[in-house]
Amino acid sequence: MGSEIKQLWHSSKTYRIVLTAAVVYAVLRVVVQGVVLAVMLFPEAGILGGVPAWVDVEGPVVPADLQIYLNAAKHLSARQDLYLKGSLERLEDHYPYAPSFALVFVPFLWLSPLGVSVVHTLLHVVAYGIMYLSWGRIFKRFNLDQAVRMLTWTLPVWLLFSSFWTDLAYLNIYIIMALLATLLIEAVLMERLGWSVFWLSIILQIKPHWAFAVAVPLLLGRRRFFLKLLALTFVTYIVITGATLLTVGPAYGWSQYRDYVAFLGRLSRDFPWRGPERPFLGYNHSIKQTVVYWLGVSREMLRLATVVKMLLLIPLGVTCLRHLFRSVNCPGIERPGLGLDFAFALYLGVFIWLDMVWELSLGIALYPYLLGTTQSRFIRTWLHVAFLPYALLDPWRVGSLVFGGMGIILPGPYVATDPAIYIPLIMATILMLYAVLVARLWRAAPAPRLAGV
Q: Please, what's the b/e burial string for 190-206 (b: 16 or more CB within 10 A of its CB; e: otherwise)?
């Protein structure tokens, strides 16, 4: 992507101004992130007044989601239960991933709080950079020249992208999952079986719903490749599970895998839903959370939310069936536009179905892809309206912090001036992009065969 950026830099004054401003913001934002990290890791120093009084911890405070992973690694090392029973009143106390993922974090226990925070911050930055370069490689490989151009034009948006900066603050693994999904999409479209199994096996150890791209070969009519991928991934998953059991002890490991399945089964039921009595919606923008926030937390409303999700997903299901019964039966490299449309539509469909929707990390790749593959001026305007308000939330949050001080940070933490805690902005973005993709896929479906012709 270096040559494309350089060429556009020399040919467009507007691009030079916007990109320079975005780079300056990113540099300053890294400084802000460093200061916030210092406040958390060295509370006794009293930097910027120290850690807020409502933070119920003592000593160095590692970013919240990273602390969950480290706690799980400690529990695994001590052969303690990874999955707490009972209500999820404190969501941060619950570890939601497979035991194998906790095992991966055991070596990080050897680092100091400062060391582990710095290492994972750098990992996120590197992963984000690789993701940008990977999409440039994918678009070039599939001769999507306009998508490459739009990826270059949207580099400033990548530098300001709210999901990246939020992930950097919490040190969750959303950006890393988006990178893994990117590599899986490329592998299945190229029909590289070994790499497809490799990336899919990693994803299944962390967040199985990110394995959405596995269905793309089936929808393209590549059933043999699809079945091989499933079979080899199943064997690999068994091998990884067996290795984990041997490492931690068969009896203990089996009990943790059993608890893991039980935890996922009751996660939605025990989740601390925010009802109308709460002052704002919060950052979970799922369909279910939105419905119960407006209508109340009850069994009936939870069922209603499930019905709403099913109704929203019917168009995608019907469209996929239409393609499935009249598939093009060609590898993704020959029909990359159709393959990518399927991958992104399945991604959005999965997030519509989920009950916990905190981010849309892969949206930063979907945005330039759609801009570069549509000719409709109306649709391009629709895409800007759909994505940019969510993508550019971080500058608003940082500006609020600069002018409002730490007083605008509410327990949670939430930014009091953030519109995303009052309206389901992420889900609105998902639904608007989803509508564009489903309409494209419907138009691209082969016409039904007429009787007697």
A: bbeeeebbbbbbbbbbb
